[in-house]
Design a protein that fits this description.
With 475 residues, the protein is an alpha+beta fold. The chain has 13 helices and 13 strands. α2 runs antiparallel to α3 and α2 crosses α12.
């Protein structure tokens, strides 16, 4: 009994300390997110059901923009010459704190909210990266801050940026070029994940390009000697890429997708097309690999006696980490504590793990400690990287799916349309609004984050890896 009494006392002290650390303003932004929770869930679920892909997100963008306007933010649509990109701002003067909101889906991942593979519409898109929750949570955080500015509790400007086409064309690169972060002091972002942590890891830089081969058509049996096969060039090119993989750095990646290899078997094809992507954690390593892969396209064209053309699609930087910002976010995660789940949600998570061949351990919502920043991280890429080379960026990961869930899969779609995803989304909105509040209240924190940004960036000059306007309509 004494042991139990002691535990109760310690628990009471812990709760008391937790309550004391939450300022009245932080309680206010948490309450604001709670007051908008039902609408944020409605927005997230609407975008989840729409499942619109890169540059096609007209309805998804409008769901977010309309709610921003309804709550008093000034919305500007079609920024950076992108119909589905927009900004929503409130306030005046410094600091200017921005927050990112993505909302594009992935092709072919349609799924019902059940823990087995079950498409809503065969072959249709789905939110396999959780971007339906991404935009909704970030807008919820922006509105919570807006209400504090409106009440006179803090001063400055909050700026929500609706950022489309992250999965394919990386629209933030064109948005950066349009100067949409030029007046921003600090940017805040998050990404749905399978754990909760202040994210102080980088990502992979990449470059996307299309190679097209042009030959001469002929009858594949009657007179193939009159043909020059674009398909031969494509096969020689992919063979060269696959041999080259042995000789690139272990941290680098090369992917390709054959988009056109000929139409029928009895024609020597005069056209072929392949989409190629090169990645590395360091842009300075990625670029020489890219140059070599481009040379190989010329070699393949020479061997097949055809012409070729290379077209740049887009390219993005690795993320510039900001540990000072990560420390601010970490403190707020510890104030919020872990997410709790019902028995039904835990069972759903384990069923997802069973269906995807993972250990049935359920959800992971404990607050991870602030990890050391790895020099060569694995994982994916994001155009948040380009934002981070132009303004300090604070990033967050929040649990919206069970531990070890395969990302970009039906399993994430299933969780993102039900209560597991909803809880993660609302949690992210609270954590980001609290972190933004810290920046508005404490100019010294803003300066500390900006100083680290300047130090990490050093003398490197940002150069966008794009050529021409955003490829609207090229999907």
């Amino acid at each position: 009994m004494k042991r139990i009494a002691l535990l109760l006392v310690l628990c009471s002290i812990s709760l008391s300390m937790h309550a004391q650390k939450l300022s009245s303003n932080k309680k206010a932004v948490i309450a604001a997110v709670e007051s908008h929770k039902d609408n944020l869930i409605r927005i997230s679920d609407s975008i989840w059901a729409l499942a619109e892909t890169a540059f096609n997100e007209s309805k998804s963008a409008e769901v977010l923009a309309e709610y921003a306007e309804k709550n008093g933010l000034m919305v500007t649509r079609g920024v950076a010459n992108i119909p589905t990109a927009f900004t929503a701002t409130y306030g005046s003067g410094k600091p200017v704190i921005s927050i990112l909101g993505e909302f594009d889906a992935l092709p072919g991942l349609s799924q019902n909210t059940v823990p087995v593979k079950d498409p809503r519409v065969d072959g249709a898109p789905g939110h396999g990266c959780g971007h339906n929750m991404f935009g909704a949570a970030s807008l919820g955080a922006a509105i919570a801050i807006k209400e504090q500015i409106e009440a006179g509790k803090i001063k400055g400007t909050v700026k929500f940026l609706g950022t489309p086409a992250e999965e394919k064309y990386f629209a933030k690169v064109w948005m950066v070029q349009a100067g949409l972060w030029d007046d921003v002091d600090v940017n805040v972002s998050w990404h749905p994940g399978a754990n909760i942590e202040a994210d102080v890891q980088s990502g992979l830089s990449l470059i996307d390009f299309i190679v097209e081969f042009y030959g001469q058509a002929a009858h594949a049996s009657a007179d193939p000697w009159n043909g020059r096969s674009a398909s031969d060039a494509l096969e020689l090119y992919t063979t060269g890429i696959n041999y080259y993989r042995e000789h690139i750095r272990p941290s680098s990646r090369i992917h390709y997708h054959i988009q056109d290899g000929g139409q029928v078997v009895n024609v020597v094809p005069d056209y072929s097309k392949i989409w190629v992507r090169v990645r590395d954690p360091k842009r300075k390593v990625m670029l020489p690999t890219y140059e070599q892969v481009k040379k190989m396209a010329e070699g393949a064209a020479i061997m097949a006696n055809v012409d070729y053309k290379i077209s740049l699609v887009s390219g993005i930087y690795e993320t510039l980490v900001n540990r000072s910002g990560g420390e601010i976010m970490q403190n707020n995660l510890e104030l919020l504590g872990p997410i709790s789940y019902t028995e039904e949600e835990l069972a759903f998570g384990k069923a997802i793990q069973k269906a995807t061949g993972k250990p049935e351990v359920g959800m992971d919502s404990k607050i991870e400690p602030l990890r050391e920043t790895e020099d060569l991280p694995g994982g994916g890429s994001t155009d948040v990287g380009d934002v981070s080379w132009n303004v300090p960026n604070i990033n967050l990961s929040v649990t919206v799916a069970p531990k070890d869930t395969p990302w970009h899969s039906w399993a994430v779609v299933a969780c993102g349309g039900m209560s597991i995803g909803h809880k993660g989304m609302v949690y992210a909105a609270k954590a980001m609004s609290m972190t933004m509040l810290d920046l508005f209240e404490n100019p010294k924190l803003v300066e500390k984050v900006k100083e680290e940004y300047k130090t990490r960036k050093g003398d490197e000059k940002y150069e966008a890896m794009i050529d021409g306007p955003p490829p609207i309509g090229d999907n």
